[in-house]
Amino acid sequence: MKQIRFALLLVFCQIFFLMPCLAMDEENPFAKMIDRSYPENWVELTTQYTQLSYTDSLQGLRLTQQIREVAQQTGSDYWQLEADFFRVNYNHREEVRNAATTQETMLQLEEIAQQALLRHHPGIRIRALETIMRAYRDILQNYEMAFEYSRILADELEQVDASIYIDKLQAYRIIGDLYYMFGDLEGAAFYYAKLLDDKGKKTEQEMLHHFPAYCNLGLIARKKDNDIATSDSLYNRVLYLAEQGNETYRRQGRVWKGIIYSQLGDNRYFENDYESAIPLYQQSLEIMVDYNDPHFVAGTSIRLANLYLLKGELKACKSLLDQARTCIDQSYQQRRYHELFPVLSKYYAAIGDRSASMAYLDSAMIAQEAYNKQFSSLQLLRAEQRNFKLEQIAREEELHTEQVRSRGYRLLSQAILAGFVIALGLLLYILYIYRKKQAAYRELVRRAQAWAVERPATLREAATANAAWCENTDDDEYPEIDNDDESDQQIAQAVITLMDAEKIFLAHDLTLDTLALRLKVNRSYLSKAINQSIGKKFTDYVNEYRIREAIHRLNDPLLQSQSLEGLAAECGFNDRISFYRVFKKITGLSPSEYRKNMR
User: Fold this and answer.
1) Chain-centre distance of CA 546, in angstroms?
2) Residue 8 to residue 21: CA distance in whole angstroms
3) What is the structure's pLDDT at 152?
4) What pTM does this model have?
5) How many Cβ atoms sit within 10 Å of the Cβ of residue 20?
6) With contact defined as beta carbons under 8 Å apart, do 571 and 553 qualify?
7) Of the candidates 576, 94, 103, which has an alpha carbon nearest to the alpha carbon of residue 378?
8) What distances in angstroms separate CA 47 from CA 30, 42, 43, 78, one per listed residue?
């Protein structure tokens, strides 16, 4: 009986261990890659990695298990690393879909990069470094760390040939794009040139990276050096390459032809050769409209409309401006308004509508300020991150120095005892300061909560402040406005009603212009009514409502797990930075400090 049980157990074990291998041979997409090099597996492997961005959790786990089976079957350190990298990528893509990347994932990627270095697998190391750099740039938005890893990645790329790492050109392009993003044109040009200078025969897939490299180098030649001849030469190189290769390659090339025609039109515009610029812009629009790229169509339409305006062809100008506005709305590229509004202002001036022209001129100034602020905020964020990194390095050096000094002090028992006493006293002092600071924070939280439950000032309650405001206001501040106090109060009451009843402050796109359009009043009338009848600037007034809403949500026990980024978006803020700035200005605390010190 025992022999029969043993035989049955043996059969079961054979089936149990053999079935995964049979299934792997029949279904496992990684099984056929075992005896091939990375360049030979590039298409299939890239497809599997890309699939992680779109697959559901069940399929993702299945693929992860299949590559783990290959690693176990082969026992090679390469496939072990590939399996580890695939698993971390699967977790990372899940986090990206949720707009988050955990520190644990970053540490795992760094560990894979280090293991690949130790085991001499440069391809996996480079792919891990590129993933880390992208995560810091796109998800964590820690640009200083993205630049640090871009430099490490560039050093690694110098050591390998494209025959070993087939995505080498793409990696150079990504690094160049990072420098271009921050206006470092010299750094961007260096890496784009590295992409183009890479020796060896290239596949058509690799050649596709030449399009953006030549295009951006053309832009850099014009912007940085005012070298139109070099810029034209680089653009014409793209037009030549776009006609080469197979049908798929040429289809991609046609898109780049549309982009390049617009850039060549910009070069002619820069030289004041408007007659030559117009047909180039028209060719670009024909391609990009067919390609259905509203963002690009918007920019080209605006520039072409401006040329028609200069020629006095107002009907064609207006048609293009309408097309540009529609495309901006479709692509949600609000930053394009800083290009559109100045041309609209000139158009309405040309047709004699002075009121509309002045309104668009005001809007143009606001849009330009917002555009400049967006870029400045990006630069400021990186500068802050750089300072933090330098401070961190200084702290680490200081800590190292202290550790070296402490090793000498350990020989003296009295010094150890003295150090202990000092440390204890310092700890008690820090604890005292910490408690005092926490008490101050809690008091600020209490005040903010009390303020948040207060009803915003009505017209009647703001009367005293309004009278003082009017006494200090120059009579000529609104020389063209003739509406009386009663109409001001009516407009202001309408604003209060919309804020209280409809909570329009939660809308991201709420501006003085959109509110004026909603109330069907002149923008200047609306601004004056809010200032005189409510006693506050429009932006401050809206932000107070938004911060009150944020405090209510922070106090809600059911919303404690909500992220601060999500809270900012739901309260009407367009970005995390502005939410933090306004919240701290009003309450004296950052949102995270407020949440931490709530009772």
Assistant:
1) 23
2) 21
3) 94
4) 0.56
5) 15
6) yes
7) 576
8) 11, 8, 6, 19
- Supply 544's token pair: 């107070």
Average pLDDT, the chain: 81
| Tokens, residue 56 | 């559901």
- Tell me the helix, strand and coil percentages in the chain, rounded to 5: 80, 0, 20
Measuring CA to CA, how many Å separate 442 from each of 190, 318, 454, 544? 52, 57, 19, 20
* Residue 284 half-sphere exposure toward CB, CA atoms < 13 A: 26
Span 119-139, mean pLDDT?
A: 89
List, for residues 238-281, the tens digit of each pLDDT value.
888 888 877 777 888 888 898 999 999 999 988 999 999 999 99
User: What's the token pair of residue 531?
Assistant: 């200032």
For residue 545, what pLDDT is reported?
92
Measuring CA to CA, how many Å separate 517 from each of 171, 244, 521, 538, 552?
Answer: 47, 51, 7, 15, 29
Q: pLDDT for 478-514, tens place per residue?
A: 334 344 567 888 898 989 999 988 999 998 889 999 9
185-197 and 210-225 helices, crossing angle to 10°? 140
- Chain Cα centroid distance, residue 163: 33
Residues 520 and 561: beta-carbon distance below 8 Å: no
CB < 8 Å & 24+ apart, contacts of 225-228: 228/267, 228/270, 228/271
- The structure tokens 């949102």 sit at 591
pLDDT value at 322 more than 60:
yes
Distances (CA, A) of 95 to 104, 290, 563, 575: 11, 35, 14, 20
Distances (CA, A) of 509 to 355, 504, 513: 23, 10, 10
**pLDDT, tens digit, for every residue of 589-599?**
899 888 888 76
CA distance 145 to 187: 16
Direct distance between the N- and C-terminal alpha carbons of the chain, in angstroms, rounded to an integer: 69
Q: How far is CA 321 from CA 18, 236, 308, 311, 349, in A?
A: 68, 29, 11, 15, 14
Per-residue HEC secondary structure of 389-426 comes to HHHHHHHHHHHHHHHHHHHHHCCCHHHHHHHHHHHHHH
CA–CA separation, 222 and 4 (whole Å): 85
Cα separation of 272 and 278, whole Å? 11
Q: Within 410-537, where are the H helices?
A: 413-453, 463-471, 485-497, 512-519, 523-529
User: How many secondary structure helices (H) and strands (E) does the chain include?
Assistant: 27, 0
Contacts within 8 Å (CB) and 24+ apart, 480-487: 480/524, 481/522, 481/524, 481/525, 481/528, 483/525, 483/528, 483/529, 485/532, 485/533, 487/525, 487/529
Residues belonging to the chain: 599
- pLDDT for 42 equals 78
Q: What is the pLDDT of residues 543-578, one digit of tens each?
A: 999 999 989 998 888 888 888 899 999 999 998 899
Residues 6 or more apart whose Cβ sits within 8 Å of residue 241: 207, 210, 211, 214, 253
Q: What angle do CA 357, 362, 368 make, to 5 degrees?
A: 120
DSSP-based three-state secondary structure for 333: coil
- For residues 42 and 343, the model is more confident at 343
pLDDT, tens only, 334-359: 778 888 889 999 999 999 999 999 98
**Both tokens assigned to 499:** 């804020």
Report the distance separating Cα 267 and Cα 288, nearest Å: 19
